[in-house]
Amino acid sequence: MNVKLIDIPKILKREGNIAVLENGVVPFDIKRVYYLYDIPSTSKRGGHAHKKLNQILIAISGSFDVVLKDGKNQQVITMNKPDKGLLISNNIWRELENFSSGAVCLVLASEVYDEDDYIRNYKSFIAYIKNK
Ligand code: T46
């Protein structure tokens, strides 16, 4: 499946750590940054795929599960470390669930927001990738 866990380079110090994302680590030009926060533990986010957009998700704080589907395979990745980024390429269905208290999901995106890039219906997603 076209997803990858990325180790975010970090500087560890007794006084606290720094994780740095810069060119070379992020495999696309970042056009947008957003974050999900104050998420009720019962919330399910995502439930869509993107035609063009590539993204990196980071659990800056707390944890959550990401369910990923490419039409053939499914996997669940638990994000719970601020020095790990989950690269999700286009044409992958994602669902985010099991948010811990205080979880924050930071997202680096390859495109600005465009609702036309979303496939928000699973059957339409399957039809879309079959026709690719
Ligand atoms: C994704 C997951 C991880 C905007 O107007 N601009 C934005 O940049 C975004 C991200 C959203 N919106 C609007 C669109 C909807 O009316 O905010 C509303 C909620 O968005 P959505 O239901 O898509 O939120 P999530 O958390 O289900 O999905 C978001 C991203 O949209 C998506 O690309 O992968 O976070």
TrEMBL record:
Domain Sugar 3,4-ketoisomerase QdtA cupin: from-to ranges: 1-129
Chain ranges passing through the membrane: none
The organism of origin for this protein: Flavobacterium cheonanense
Protein name as it appears in the record: FdtA/QdtA family cupin domain-containing protein
Origin superkingdom: Bacteria
Pfam families, sorted: FdtA (PF05523)
SUPFAM superfamilies, per the entry: RmlC-like cupins
